[in-house]
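Internal tracking record. Fields below are filled automatically when a chain is submitted to the structure queue. Please do not edit lines marked as system-generated. If the sequence contains nonstandard residues, flag them in the REMARKS field before resubmitting.
Queue: standard
Priority: normal
Entity type: single polypeptide chain
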Amino acid sequence: MNSFLKSKRENREGAKRAKTLFKKLGVLRAFAVKVFRLGTFAILFTAILMSSPITAQAQSSGPQYVVQAGDTLFNIAQSFGVSLAELQKANNITDPTKITVGQSLTIPGFDGISGKVLTYKVKAGETFSGIARRLGMNYDLAVKLNHVTNPSLLYVGQRFIYVEGAQGSPNGKVTVIQPGESMIALAARSGRSAWELALLNDIANPYAVAAGQQVITPADGVPLTGLPTPFNSIVIKPERIIPGGMMEVIVQTSEGANLKGKFDEWDLNFASDAVGQVALQGVYRFTEPGLYSLVITATTPNGGLSVFEQMIPVSDGKYPEFQRINVGPELKDILDPNVMKPEFEKIRLASTIYSPTRQWQGIFAKPIQSTFISTPFGIQRSYNGGPLDNFHGGMDWGANGGAPITAAANGTVIFVSELRVRGRATLIDHGWGVVTGYWHQYKFHVTVGQKVKTSDLIGEVGSSGLSTGPHLHFEVWVGGNEVNPEQWLTTEFP
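SYSTEM-GENERATED OUTPUT FOLLOWS
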């Protein structure tokens, strides 16, 4: 009897489930009919569009870039690390020269990234992580979007790509964790909790930070650059550095930090000035265009150490190709490398002097009244058909023999001597690694150790040494390299 009742009950429950299932099937059938009708409409609508004279450019999915003034399709492709052909295909562009300002382009190769992308021009003293944080970019996403393999190789003038509309951290400063220091201590100094700082810096465990790790702390009114403390700002001038040109590095720090630096192979010496700590460096004339490393180390009074590194581009100087000079047999022996090289080394060593006190002010004065420049700076030279393995390291002014030569700026005379190639030569130290040279003189009017002021008489024009006529060869050395003197006669440094 019990088994009969159980079987009957199971039959009733089964019937209920079947009824419910049929109801669901009915709903699905009605939905299917609607989908079919909509699908038929969609097919008809598509057919109408295809037969219409209106055409639409089908674009691939991906972030959108709006063309800016001065953009070319080739440069846009380079910026995003894609080929020109890929960019054309993604946007159905047949003629790459026909793009317009304001046009929106789909950038291929960035699956999972959408929205409008913009570019930001990297300034001196900015770091990849600092820019990403300020613009609200996830670090890994920023690396992917910028096709970066080594974020430390970010260079001045580089275009940093970011997604518009992200909420970043415009203010803050970066602190380097010192040996023996903890996130707890850093948090206490900044008035924040350790977990708050961990969240801000995407750190999983605030108790497991290592010495040398950089941590961003909030700081109202302090623009976030990514510079680690005690660096406040770094400015590099000019924007376009060229071989034979000048480089100014101006650093502002807190905590009375002591600075040391290096640009490529040249040591940077910093001196205090009203604008901050300043280093001046000449760039060797035969430096190849490319990216060169700038490293600045700051040591605080309590022994804290921070290092900043950035790549600096050096452009082509675009100097005239060459100058061929023929000299007579009476001067031919001077062309012997055994004569020329030791003399150059002697001058180079004397010009590498660094005095921490700046003696000059303002723009340098022209050291001669002549307006006739017979040879400009930087031109490559060949003597008697020889190789183009040297360059003209200064400016030549043609003048009458005996014409006065004057000091270009305040300074101290450090060299007075008669040489085989440079003839009667004088060097004046102006401080901060800046030295001026005056070659081929007829007569000296100064002695070593003598203090001179701008426009003081120091010598007379002659034709001594390797010279084919009376003239003044004037040089400016900065940080052990010859630079174009014309810069110093037209521009105030720093």
